[in-house]
């Protein structure tokens, strides 16, 4: 199991303080800067590993950064604290985005990211809770994280715990039947402490979601399953922050975050081939320059 | 080693689901973390008493087995001790990937309870038979696989699963069997129970086949053949030392289980002795999809009877003598 980087964790606590207590514009700027750093690190990790799911990593980054930077009540130095908020990345193939975010928060040292997918690294291509602090359940096969998040929210209710549970799903992943089983369970039980975020980048591995198996009207589907549904720009930190607010009426909250696959790198944006294509050296250079502006 | 005889009247047989229900209620009274999770199977999992006493701690996810197991893992993540209960075929077949990824690989302590295992649902047919569960789950790392035999061993299995630090799978027997396991028998991973000593051959049996193995050993004794009967309630991890000792000391093995021969206890024993102590071996179990018939009929159909075991012992003894 990796261990915390205490200096980075201390800086993370300051960031959390600032994003929570400061003015919204200040939070926006802090989160935007964090997103830029997380994205650059993702590109470097994938360059080093020569493997990864760069398109989805870049589409989900602002969601992860907003959650860890300003929403979740977590402590990277005590990752198994019983009352912690639970975060589940159901789209586990975007592990690089999660690892980059977790390292930025001090869950483990930044240098570990250089081992991404290397032999014997803790940082597998899909997250492993027995090796990586901050990971709640092992995901990778799609349609797994959501039911586990429902169980976590049920446990909070049963124990009187006040933690919230947030699960991030891919939009293509909503084609998995198990996710709708979970949505129905959460709706039935009115699990208001549960938030499901859909990274709605409209692309899946092979094609557009709507050309593969139609998801729309997606918001209506969530509503029909008993959820309070919010549709939001998934790259607008301020809008995401508002969308991640608590349930207003006792239903679980679904946030459909409209995103762009490959966000921030113009030649990758909204292009299906960048699902798991690995950039060459020139492309890496161009991507980092664009993300650093 | 314990050497015992059948301690109850062989005519008295019991469905172990009652013990499962009693033990779960006892644990729930002792520990508020214990919850039951089921898939519209309150009745068939015998959880009506549990629901009456702990209505909030019986979570019925409806007919949704993937959700069932995932929710169980999430409850474990949140500090609960979930007993996830469903008919064996649906729990292990439909939710196999959840068992692997959410429970075993994630290390979430979920007690997976396969109800009405084997061919207990007889006439309902192979869709409802759980004869592949041992094969599928033996192949999953970090997941002990338990097949208790009678009421006492079912109780022991539930207690052990409750105390164990990780997830496990256990069959909850439905087909009525007599009490055959002594109350002081050892129970733990890699532990077996020697129910009868013998020198000419060993029958290794689990679940419904244990009482039948003892009956076969009794019949063979009358023929002058001395048979050891070994019970391995942990199909995984197996008591390898006891199996290898049986091979070395008795020189011939018969394995009997209410499960497919492709990958269950018999396959585990064959792999072990084939590599470390080859001896004549016969495996009794289920082959192919079962025809229509009640559970008793089907056990007979596949030769999973005292007489079937007796014949298999004669076969391995014949192999031994022809090899000399």
Notable characteristics:
heterodimer, A: alpha/beta, 10 helices, B: 324 residues, alpha/beta, Rossmann fold, 2 domains, 7-stranded mixed β-sheet, 5-stranded mixed β-sheet, 40% helix, globular, disordered N terminus
Provide an overview of this structure.
- The complex is a heterodimer of chains A (293) and B (324).
- Chain A contains 10 helices and 5 strands, in the order αααβααβαβααβαβα.
- Chain A is α/β, with parallel strands linked by helices and 293 residues long.
- Chain A has a single domain (6-292), classed as 3-Layer(aba) Sandwich (Rossmann fold), CATH 3.40.50.
- Chain A has a 5-stranded parallel beta sheet, with helices on both faces.
- In chain A, helix 1 crosses helix 3 (54-71) and helix 5 (145-159) packs parallel to helix 6.
- The relative contact order of chain A is 0.16.
- Chain B has helices at residues 17-30, 48-53, 65-77, 88-94, 96-105, 133-138, 151-163, 209-222, 240-250, 265-276, 295-301, 306-323, and strands spanning 34-38, 58-60, 81-87, 111-115, 145-146, 168-172, 193-196, 201-205, 227-231, 234-236, 253-260, 281-286.
- Chain B is 40% helix and 18% strand.
- Chain B starts with 16 loop residues before the first helix and ends with a helix.
- Chain B contains 12 helices and 12 strands.
- Chain B folds into 2 domains: 17-172, Thiamin diphosphate (ThDP)-binding fold, Pyr/PP domains (Rossmann fold, 3-Layer(aba) Sandwich), CATH 3.40.50.970; 193-323, 3-Layer(aba) Sandwich (Rossmann fold).
- Classes of the chains: A alpha/beta (293), B alpha/beta (324).
- The A-B interface holds A 82, 86, 128-130, 136-141, 143-144, 146-156, 158-159, 161, 163, 165, 177-178, 181-182, 184-185, 188 and B 35, 56-57, 59, 61-62, 64, 66-67, 69-80, 82, 97-98, 101-102, 105-108.
């Amino acid at each position: 199991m990796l261990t915390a980087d205490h200096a980075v964790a201390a800086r993370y606590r300051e960031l959390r303080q600032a994003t929570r207590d400061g003015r919204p514009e200040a939070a926006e700027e802090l989160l935007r800067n964090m997103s830029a750093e997380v994205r650059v690190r993702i590109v470097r990790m994938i360059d080093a590993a020569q493997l990864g799911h760069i398109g989805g990593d870049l589409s989900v980054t602002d969601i992860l950064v907003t959650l860890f930077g300003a929403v979740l009540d977590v402590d990277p130095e005590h990752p198994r604290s019983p009352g912690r908020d639970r975060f589940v990345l159901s789209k586990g193939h975007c592990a690089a985005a999660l690892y980059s975010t977790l390292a930025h928060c001090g869950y483990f040292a930044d240098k570990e990211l250089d081992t991404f997918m290397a032999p014997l690294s803790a940082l597998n291509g899909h997250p492993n809770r027995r090796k990586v602090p901050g990971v709640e359940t092992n995901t990778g096969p799609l349609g797994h994280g959501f039911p586990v998040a429902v169980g976590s929210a049920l446990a909070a209710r049963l124990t009187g715990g006040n933690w919230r549970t947030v699960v991030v799903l891919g939009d293509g992943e909503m084609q998995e039947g198990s996710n709708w089983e979970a949505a129905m369970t959460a709706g039935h039980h009115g699990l208001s402490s549960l938030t499901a975020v859909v990274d709605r980048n409209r692309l899946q591995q092979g094609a557009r979601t709507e050309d593969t198996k139609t998801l729309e009207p997606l918001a209506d589907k969530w509503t029909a399953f008993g959820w309070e549904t919010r549709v939001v720009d998934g790259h607008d930190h301020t809008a995401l922050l508002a969308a991640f607010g608590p349930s207003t009426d006792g239903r679980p909250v679904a946030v459909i975050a409209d995103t762009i696959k490959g966000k921030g790198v113009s030649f990758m944006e909204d292009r299906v081939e960048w699902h798991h294509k690995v950039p060459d050296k020139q492309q890496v250079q161009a991507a980092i320059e664009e993300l650093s502006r | 080693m314990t050497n015992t005889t059948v301690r109850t009247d062989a005519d008295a047989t019991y469905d172990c689901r009652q013990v499962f229900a009693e033990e779960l209620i006892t644990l729930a009274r002792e520990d508020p973390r214990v919850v039951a999770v089921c898939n519209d199977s309150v009745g068939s999992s015998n959880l009506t008493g549990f629901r009456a006493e702990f209505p909030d701690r019986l979570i019925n996810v409806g007919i949704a087995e993937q959700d069932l197991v995932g929710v169980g893992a999430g409850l474990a993540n949140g500090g609960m001790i979930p007993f996830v209960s469903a008919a064996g075929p649906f729990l292990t077949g439909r939710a196999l990937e959840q068992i692997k990824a959410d429970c075993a690989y994630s290390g979430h302590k979920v007690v997976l309870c396969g109800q009405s295992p084997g061919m207990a649902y007889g006439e309902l047919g192979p869709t409802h038979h759980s004869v592949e569960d041992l094969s599928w789950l033996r192949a999953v790392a970090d997941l002990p696989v338990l097949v208790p035999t009678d009421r006492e061993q079912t109780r022991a299995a539930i207690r052990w699963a409750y105390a164990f630090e990780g997830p496990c799978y256990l069959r909850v027997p439905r087909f009525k069997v007599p009490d055959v396991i002594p109350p002081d028998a050892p129970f733990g991973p890699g532990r077996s129970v020697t129910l009868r000593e013998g020198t000419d051959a060993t029958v290794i049996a689990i679940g419904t086949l244990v009482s039948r193995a003892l009956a076969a050993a009794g019949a063979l004794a009358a023929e002058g053949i001395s048979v050891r009967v070994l019970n391995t309630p942990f199909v995984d991890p197996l008591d390898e030392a006891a199996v290898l000792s049986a091979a070395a000391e008795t020189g011939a093995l018969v394995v009997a289980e209410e499960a497919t021969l492709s990958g269950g206890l018999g396959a585990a024993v064959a792999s072990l002795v084939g590599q470390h102590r080859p001896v004549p071996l016969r495996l009794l179990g289920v082959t192919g999809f079962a025809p229509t018939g009640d559970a008793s009929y089907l056990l007979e159909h596949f030769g999973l009877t005292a007489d079937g075991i007796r014949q298999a012992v004669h076969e391995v003894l014949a192999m031994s003598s022809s090899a000399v």
